[in-house]
Structures are given as structure tokens and as C-alpha cells.
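ugh ok fine here u go
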Amino acid sequence: MKKSAPNAPTIVNRSAKFHFAIESTFTAGMVLRGTEVKSLREGKASFNDTFCIFHGNELFIRNLYIAEYVMGTNNNHDPVRERKLLLNRQELNKILNKKKEKGYTIVPLQIFFSENGQVKIDIALAKGKKTYDKRESIKRKDQERDLKRNLRI
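structure:
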């Protein structure tokens, strides 16, 4: 896990590792408005149906829900607007080339604050798991949980 700012929440996409086989991860910045950052500091975001998409040579995240800031006035943001992700050119080219291969998708993993207070997002190049792979993941989790339970006794 990355170093994050003290007392800043980390918002994790728990279903990503269940539904996808993750191949490589990247850390990106996000273009946000002030009220979005304040809402993220309160931990009010959701990854439901979130995905990343290319427009030209730029990467954007879609359907990331960031709740409106409670103290925001008429300057509040749209909760599910498209947000640009900031990566360097080599990383964008690598992701774009892999994305062109069949079966790859770009999945957000977590949002966190860096040590200097910037909002960062971890994204991953991933392939969708088949049903039998998901069953295997559930079986492995259950075995690990049972092992931990037996070690505590």
C-alpha cells in the first residue's frame, strides 16, 4: 500500500480484486474541483460501476461517485462527472497498447491522499475472471479465514 497522508481516508474498491485478475497497477493524479477534494477528505465516494476510458490520448474515469460537499453552495460539483486522470506519456501508451488487446480493462482500485495532500488513484490493467476463478477466490479466502481462526485458539 502507498504512503498516505495522516488522518486522510483511503477509499478502496473491494470488488475489483474479486471480479478481475489484476496484471499491473499505476498511480495517477486526478483533476478535481475544490468541493470534490473536501468531500473525499470526508471519505464520501463510491466505486459502483466505475471504469476508465480513453478519449484520444487522454485517460478519463467514468461513474466515480463523489458526494456533493455538504457545506458547498452553488459552486458544488456534479457527483458523477467524468474526471481526467494524470499519467505520464509512457504509462498512457503502455495502458493504451494493452487495452487494445482483447479482454483487458482499466479498473480503479483505490483513492488516497499522498503525503503532500494530493489526491491519487491507483488503477490497474486487468482481465475479467471467469465464474470458476471467482469460486476459487472464495474458497481460498475461506481457507485463510479458517486458518487464522484456528491459530487464534
